[in-house]
Amino acid sequence: MSLKRIDVYADPEDLAIIREAAARRGVSEAEIIRQGIHLAAMANRVRDEPLFSRTAEGPARTASRAEVRDAVADAVRRQSGPASERTA
Question: pTM for the full model?
Answer without folding.
Answer: 0.52
